[in-house]
Amino acid sequence: MEVRNSRRWAPRGRNRWIVAAAALVSAAIVRTLLHPLLGPVMPGASFLIAAVLVEYYCGLAPAIGVMLLGLCLADYLFVPPYGHIDVIDASDIRLLISYPLITILVITLVERLRRAQYRAELLGAVAQSRYEMLLRHDNERLLARRATDEMHRMLHHIAQYQRTLILIKALDPANSLPPGSFVAAGATAMPDGSTGDASLHAGIAYCTKHAQVHQEDLARVSGHLTPGHHRMRFLSGGRDDWRPVECVCERFITSSGEFLILRAED
């Protein structure tokens, strides 16, 4: 993969030139302190090291600047005759050839390594981003599949227990489909052709069995319905003949919202 920004790894701004100037001054001070010990030996060593360090941290342009200024300082201060550049002898020629050649070679290698490192970091960031996108899409696909399966399970539940359904309640009526639509969809599956009673009120659809439930029990579960078992009174025969019936409430989390379905157990 071609990464055009790999050459832009170095920091921008004037701070890198301040760092380069500090490195040049530090190299000159260190070489001056070592001059009584080294004399004319390796006059450009400290400036070479400074140029390489500047190349590693600040980029190519500051490193070349340190190299050129270091060459002038090394020839003027640490090549005999010291403090004079009017005479060019063999020592000056050796410095003018060896110091730039070695410095350019080293900083070129460092530049290539830094570009390769930055390119690898960019590719790693792109790969990480794509991996996170794939994970997010995969999670969304799994959630959508789970919601679809839950919707199919709820519709099958409505069709299977149509005769015993009491009510369907949407937990979030503002963001859910009307529960009456599910009742109507399930009602078509009744073998006797009846459609039941599906009156919709405040996110609640009352189904076939709700007319046989005691009004107090129906009001209680309509306001505070939770998944699980509920004991409710059903009309048995006469007008005031009520018998307790075990009812079960199940929760369905679908792509259209969350629903609670209350039915009488067989």
Question: Overview of this structure, please?
Answer:
With 266 residues, this protein is α+β, with helices and mostly antiparallel strands. The chain has 2 domains: 4-129, no CATH class; 161-264, no CATH class. The chain is 55% helix and 15% strand. The protein contains 6 helices and 6 strands, in the order ααααβαββαβββ. It has helices spanning 15-38, 45-58, 60-77, 90-160, 179-187, 215-223, and strands spanning 165-170, 199-201, 204-206, 228-235, 242-254, 257-264. Strands 2-3-1-6-5-4 form a 6-stranded antiparallel sheet, sandwiched between helices. 26% of the residues are buried. The model is unreliable at 186-200 (pLDDT under 50). Residues 17-120 form the Sensor protein KdpD transmembrane domain.
List the main descriptive attributes of the protein structure presented here.
266 residues; alpha+beta; 2 domains; six-stranded antiparallel β-sheet; 6 helices; rod-shaped
